[in-house]
Design brief:
By secondary structure, the protein is an alpha+beta fold. It has helices spanning 47-52, 58-72, 78-81, and strands at 3-8, 12-17, 25-27, 34-38. It folds into 2 domains: 1-44, Rubrerythrin, domain 2; 46-76.
């Protein structure tokens, strides 16, 4: 499930992990009031949760991104791939 950001007028910003159908409102973990969603960034799906749910290619997509980052940083080592 993705994470969403919310703003409580009493307690400030907080983040919840909840289903897409329930994203419009969130309950403040401190005071329990219902709060509106705010967009601090794009919703972030959890790649591991997607893979556990059977979404094809979730780990491949994540792994491809990591491999590109390592190559760009000069951290592409042959022995990692052959272990």
């Amino acid at each position: 499930m993705p994470t969403y950001d919310y703003r409580c007028p009493e307690d400030g910003d907080f983040t919840l992990i909840q289903s897409m159908k329930d994203h419009a409102k969130g309950v403040c973990p401190t005071c329990g009031s219902e709060c509106n969603q705010i967009l601090l960034g794009a919703p972030r799906p959890l790649i591991e949760a997607m893979a556990d749910a059977g979404c094809p290619g979730a780990f491949h997509t994540s792994g491809d991104r990591m491999e590109k980052r390592h190559k760009a940083a000069g951290q592409d080592h042959e022995y990692w791939r052959n272990s």
